[in-house]
Task: inverse folding
């Protein structure tokens, strides 16, 4: 039985890594319904793993501002709550969604909770990480320095693997479903805005 499960997992991994675009994946919405990401074809996507009790949680305000400013131009933000980092996304997806709408008035899609690292990670994140590895924390930022020190103490080579390191890691996806860039939570939102605006501008040419 273990051999069969191992073979099945290996086959699923090969299948995931052979995906050609983000449109090859399905996710579950907050009601547990399957959502094909192919429905976002032609959109510029920002995919982010989030948490409601994190020092970076106020980034929800900045994300909603981006969405309010650029959704009309073709931006879609896909929010995936994840409880793997400091258990900072507790509760059900319904409780998380209620908190985010009441506190930050988010209008962008929020999907069911997932794992982004480890044996139970969602295939979408297996693929995202295979396309764009860890880029390093912003060491000019105090929080970035602290995170780097924390991870470096655990593993001197932590920056060599592509695992998601913390909440609010973001992936910018082109309008044809390819991963353009990965941003760590300490990266400035102004940098992300400039990059997504450039991609959105290309849609109108």
Result:
């Amino acid at each position: 039985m273990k051999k069969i499960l191992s073979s099945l997992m290996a086959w699923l991994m090969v299948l995931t890594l052979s995906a050609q675009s983000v449109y090859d994946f399905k996710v579950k919405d907050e009601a547990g319904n399957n959502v094909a990401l192919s429905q976002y074809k032609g959109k510029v996507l920002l995919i982010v793993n989030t948490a409601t009790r994190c020092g970076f949680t106020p980034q929800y305000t900045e994300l909603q501002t981006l969405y309010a400013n650029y959704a009309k131009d073709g931006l879609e933000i896909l929010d995936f709550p994840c409880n793997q980092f400091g258990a900072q996304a507790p509760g059900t997806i319904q409780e998380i969604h209620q908190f985010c709408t009441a506190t930050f008035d988010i209008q962008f899609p929020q999907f069911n909770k997932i794992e982004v690292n480890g044996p139970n990670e969602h295939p979408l994140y297996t693929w995202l990480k295979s396309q764009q590895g860890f880029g390093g924390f912003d060491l000019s930022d105090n929080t970035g320095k602290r995170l780097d020190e924390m991870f470096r103490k655990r593993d001197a080579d932590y920056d060599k693997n592509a695992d998601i390191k913390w909440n609010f890691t973001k992936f910018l996806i082109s309008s044809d479903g390819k991963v353009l860039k990965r941003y760590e939570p300490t990266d400035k939102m102004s940098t992300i805005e400039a990059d997504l605006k450039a991609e959105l501008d290309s849609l109108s040419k």
About this structure: The chain has six helices and six strands. The mean pLDDT is 92.
